[in-house]
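Team,

Forwarding the record for the chain on the shared tracking sheet. I've put the sequence and predicted structure together so nobody has to dig through attachments.
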Amino acid sequence: MKKCVIIGGGPAGLTAGYELLKNSKDYEVVILEQSDTLGGISRTVKYNGNRMDIGGHRFFSKDKQVTDFWSELMPTQGAPSIDDKILGREKALVPGGPDPEKEDRVMLIRRRISRIYYLHKFFDYPITMKPQTFMNNSGEAVRQAASFYKIPPERILVVFDDISLPCGRLRIRRKGSDGGHNGIKSIIYHLNSDAFPRVKLGVGEKPHPDYDLADWVLSQFKKDELALLREAAEKACSAAELIVAGDIDKAMSNFNG
């Protein structure tokens, strides 16, 4: 009998060893792994009575040979997992497949979720800005993202409320001054540029000059105003699609009120 020594007990090493033992009785397989964990970073661990999947567990292939290989090793999920039940997720399960709440040897059916790790935090992808700054300091968060992803100002689209426009009115601009809006002023300052497109959504002016601005923009809208804002929000989304596609002129032509 021949002895085969495999260096590394990660997915590749384990697969090679498995294939040798499965297809031939002529080999004695020895797998050497420096750490105390086999299988690499992708594994299920048990901690305080809970089972947790960690690492880059992702499998997808259109190759029948690859699919059959893994189906034999890890039968596809046949019953809802606990997170499926809690989140109310419905998915096409395999009849007769294993129950992930009772068995570890199961290929889970999951939606692919990608995140970006930056500044010790996870960010959704496509990127969703969730800044911790106040609105008046919006430029700090925008600058961080623009700097990290090397996004020029002209590729940054800002959508914001504007008290100088009647409620529900849209105004699209390629660039310009802050117009007295502190959030825009902060973005211009931190980007050192006012050459970024913006979509202004009118919320109406203050009912009286002495009315506190913060109280006004944070106050509840009336029923008829909500109807106008819903329509304006839909138009703003359509305008944003045109701007992102590089056709800001068409967006201004179609939606500027």
